[in-house]
Amino acid sequence: MTPAAIDDTTLYAVLAPFAAAVVAPILTRWFKHNAAWPLAIVPGLIFLHFAGFIGPVSEGQTFVASMAWAPSYGVNFSVYVDGLSTLFALLISGIGTFIILYAGGYLKGHPQQGRFFSFLFMFMGAMLGLVLCNNLISLFIFWELTSITSFLLIGFDHLRAASRRAAVQALVVTGGGGLVLLAGFIVIINATGEIEMSVLLSSPDLIKDSGLYVPIFLLVLGGAFTKSAQFPFHFWLPNAMEAPTPVSAYLHSATMVKAGVYLLMRVHPLLGDTALWTTVLPLFGGITLLVGTILAVRMTDLKLMLAYTTVASLGLLVMLTGTSHEKALEGAVLYLLAHSLFKGALFMVAGTIDHEAGTRDITKLGGLRSAMPITFVAACLAALSMAGLPPFIGFIAKEVLYYGTWGWLELGLPITVTAVIGNSLMLVIAAAVAIKPFFGPKVDTPKHAHEGPVLLFAGPVFLSVTGLGLALIAHTTGVLFVGPTLSSLLGEFKSIDLHLWPTKINAPLILSVITIGLGIALFTQLDRLRAIIAGILAAIGWGPDKGFDQFVSGVVGFSAWITRHLQTGKMHTYMMLTFGFTALAVLLPGFLTNSLPAMPKMPEYRFYEWGIFFIAILGLIAVLIAKTRLTAIVSLGIQGFAVALIFMMFGAPDLSFTQFMVETLSVVILALVMTRLNLSPRDHRTAPAALGTGVIAAAVGLGLTLTLLAITQQPFDSRLSEFFTEYSRSIAHGRNIVNVILVDFRGVDTLGEIAVVVLAGLCVLALIRVRTKPEPDSEGSEPDVVQTQKAEAR
């Protein structure tokens, strides 16, 4: 179905959070402790706007809107609204509304609360742009903007070294993955000739038939895996828990970390259902699921336990998406929705406990259900959904995904076993989060525990109750949210019928019973299980997190080594490097691609033309055999005079005159400069050094010669010459075309060139006027070698 065009309101909805980011610090100063209420109106209105698309999208309609951004490059700020983007937009804006309120209570009285709100809104806008953008390049811009804004949020408490390290780590991993993704988008554009996602989705076989499927697949996977913390890039997400809890609840459970999953779901019609897709994604997703849940069991910090289960959940989503099985994809969509609700709620619960009790360590918590009854209820509801128990949306998601993995013929059994083990361990963590802090005898906590204000418990209560409500109206949930999103993944309209309770005893129900039984059994042995995992991790020792530090140290060490060898402070070294790389740049492409120009035939030269070449060769020999620097500079002018004679013979007396003047002035100025510099009269370089310099000079000369030959052998396009010939007289009122070009048509360029020459002259004058105090030797005179080194440094 062709997308319908809509007005620019949706574009403004994407940009609205950026406007809120500007005014957030001002409103915070005006309203002080109540700024969260007016600020929450912005994401609330955005949610209502996208809620208006639920009905049409559930019927299979899609929409596009576009605004010119960089039209000369084909880059537009355009949006594509379908089931997948609508679901993500609702989650981002809906959960974002309660995160703004939660942040108002969590950071109440913080001197930088306004700055925090501003960062949070910028991230919200970046995330909305990411999931709604239709143009690949604009999608990438918002993709990287999420990395930048998350860097600001993770490092919000920048006085702590741990926060700074976590922020840098997240930026390096996700930002680096973003650059890989950009390469993938460029390959897609070059392979298909299309830059709009909606156009690509209308012809899903364009990439698979292009012959570049494998590099595109690997590059897109690089961006998705780093953003969604897939093994071995999973380590950055738990470290990001150094951020304030509102950041953890929003960025790293409900929104940003699902950007990679969104991308995989978005490109599924283009890249999915191939042997490579159904092998790589389930493999890495399954490993991430197991690694995340096992490491979560090891933790005792509430936020870290939830962070590692987020890693595991992302692995589960990637694994399900990788099957390309319709029922498994339906389970992935359901689990995506369920996870956003229960994990956002549980993170806010963990933050509330920390805020009101003073600790997040479950070994130091207990008996809080009487002191924090509302938080306790929200934690139980969210944990039951996380554990996959009825009657919650998490239970339906687990049933559907088991149906999908069990029915997948290729690798159904190992994928199902992996899902059962992962979900069982997920139940262990859910039980630990809901039971350990609230049940048992009352434990003395660092702060006197009590229920938080409404700003702290409004979000957890709403999200956890929503997880229950969506399950109770399962059929409506399937029609309005799951079906349209599944249609986006499959590239065709799908209508599904969800039910809360199984109609019969089947394999998914049996697998759910096994999961619950195994989870309860493991929970009863939680302390022993934690000790076993800790021992295994201690025995392994090295991990990706430590590897990241080693990688950064290696990069810093290599940079220092490069700097020591390249940034020597000597002009000779800089000139050698500059001309050496220039030679490589002009020579290597021709040799590697075997596209060297054909050598021209030797023309019939007249005797005076041979005389000019003879003069030029004599000048070259004079430069090479010159005994002093001054003689070499004067001899160098012979080459310029030879070129001036060539201009004169070919009927360009004005250019010839200019060349004569430039060469004469250059020689005079250089000679005068040398009288002001304390240079040794001779070149003290050794023979090997002089030979190396000569090789580089010859390479540059050869490269430029070949480049000029290649240019002159191209077909001549006379349109520009004809334009100047026709209009120099009529428009610029000048007969000399060259002068007209320099003064009129390129007047601004000429002015810039003059400014550069003047600035360079002033800099040279300043360097000449610098006086360095002599460093006399034992006899009171400065050695020649010291003079030479100082001159080179200048």
Automatic annotation (TrEMBL):
Chain ranges of the NADH:quinone oxidoreductase/Mrp antiporter transmembrane domain: 134-413
Superkingdom assignment: Bacteria
Bilayer topology term: Multi-pass membrane protein
Residue ranges of every copy of the MrpA C-terminal/MbhD domain listed in the record: 615-677
Domain MrpA C-terminal/MbhE: 695-778
Subcellular location: Cell membrane; Membrane
Transmembrane segments: 12-28, 35-57, 77-102, 114-131, 168-192, 212-237, 274-297, 304-321, 333-353, 374-393, 413-435, 455-485, 505-523, 574-592, 607-626, 633-651, 657-677, 689-711, 750-768
InterPro entries: CPA3_Na-H_Antiporter_A, MrpA_C/MbhD, MrpA_C/MbhE, ND/Mrp_TM, Proton_antipo_N
This protein's record includes keyword Glycosyltransferase: no
One Pfam assignment: MbhE
Entries under PANTHER family matching the protein: NA(+)/H(+) ANTIPORTER SUBUNIT, NA(+)_H(+) ANTIPORTER SUBUNIT A
Protein name: Monovalent cation/H+ antiporter subunit A
Species this protein is from: Roseibium porphyridii
